[in-house]
Structure formats: C-alpha cells, structure tokens
Amino acid sequence: MTTATVLRQTQLLNRLVLDLKTAEELGQVERLWIDPTLHQIVGVVCKSGLFGGKKYTFGWAQISAIGDSVIVDRDRELDPNQPLPQESLIGHEVWTDTGNKAGGVVDYLFNPQTGEILYYMYTSSGWAGVMGSKYILAPTEITSLGSKRLIAQNAAIQNSISHRDAIQQNLIQVKLLPDEQREQEEIAALEGDVQSFFDRGKAIADQVAKRAKETAEGVTEKAKEQYIQLRAELEAAEQTETPTPPPVIIDIDEDSVEVLPLTPPEVEIIETQTTPFPEKAE
User: Is the pTM of this model over 0.70?
Assistant: First the structure.
C-alpha cells in the first residue's frame, strides 16, 4: 500500500471546474472516465447550464491542478486519434476466481497528480455491506474485467482490509472532507453498536440455553429419583405382602372367645383292594 495522499473518485464529483487562463467557471465535475486496462483516469466530464444540460469533456492531460476546485488548461491539445474510453467501473459486481460474489464497486482511490487508480473500493455482500463498510482492492489483484463485473483473486478478497482500517493504520493517507470524517465516525459507532447488540443477543441466548439445559437435567434427575423410589416401594410391597388369611372359626366358652384358624381336616388315605365281581353263571 502507499502512504501518498490520495483522493476518492466521489470526492471529485460536483467539484467546481475553472479555466486556468480566464478563471471562468466551466461547470462541475459529473463523472470520471478511466481506462480499465491501465487503471488510469483518462478524462473528466463537466456539466454546466440549466439542469446540467451542457457537457464538456477534458482529458487528464488538460487537468492542471486539483484542489478545492479542478483547474483545466483548455489550451493543451488532445490526440484526436485516441478517443477517451467511456468506462467508470462504478457499479461493477465483484466476483472471486472461485465463483463467489463478493460485492460491488462503489468508489476508487487515485493519485491526484497522475490520475493512477491505486485501489478500488467495494462493499461486501454480507451484513458489513449493509452497514456501509467499504473494502479496498488493488488493481493487481483483479484478474479480468467485463462490461458489468470483474473477477478478483479469492485470497485477495479474503484478506482485504476495510478503507477505514487502512486509514487508521496509516496504510493510506486520504484527505477526508468534514462530512466524510463525520460519516466515518458514525459508521464506526454504528458498527460498534450492532456488534455489541449481536454480542449481547448471543450472551442472552447462551444463558437461556444453559438454563433450559439445567432445568431439563433437573427434571430428568427428579423423575429418575421418583422412579427409583417407586420401584423400591413396589419391591418392598412384594416381599412383605401378607397372604389372604384363611377362614376362621369362633370357639365360644364361658370365659373367652377365641379365634382359631380353620385348618383343613386331616385326610387319611386308605389303600383298598378291589375284588372283581364273580362272573355270572350261565
């Protein structure tokens, strides 16, 4: 990465365009044209008049200086045999060489002295993109370009760093306007709030799950104890079960009443011999 001061393409939009010789106001920057094969700004389109009806196109060679306004030297001639490519790459989809969609190009960083594009900025397809986080992608990490999308190395996408983090780590030095500085701070605070919200939600969910597990384990243990106790009671009842008492007789005399168990009468088995009947005489 570079430590040279760079500008974002969006910072140049709507900036005042002045003529170097006459100080005449020519309009405002409407868009930038780039050569995608060279990753180089080649032209600036200026709008002027009522509702921006008039258009002027200036080649990068005609740009004399870029400050709070863009100074144009209209006396510098352009090569008529080299028409300006009309490409911007803004809005291009970003895909990886493994076939996954990573996001979309929303801006790029360029060297205001040379017009060289240093990094493309894209938003992620995930929740970070919803929050407005932008990541930087070097032109050397782009493997192919088309009319609607570009393909980048998957490793570069996986290891890409956010634009804000790159600034904080002094990997790139970008002149931020007051509104952009406030936007960066608001995004950082909002991302922190969202992350904190997710962290709190996860902590609550984990706590609820833990309590539910403990409750379930408690219920299971209690049911187990009740089952063991009930089984023990049933086994004790089977061991101590009193057989149905036999019928009783009551013996009454003059002094007392006594309940005696009824015992079956003794049965004497007598072996007998049988004599066959005599045969009837004929």
Answer: no
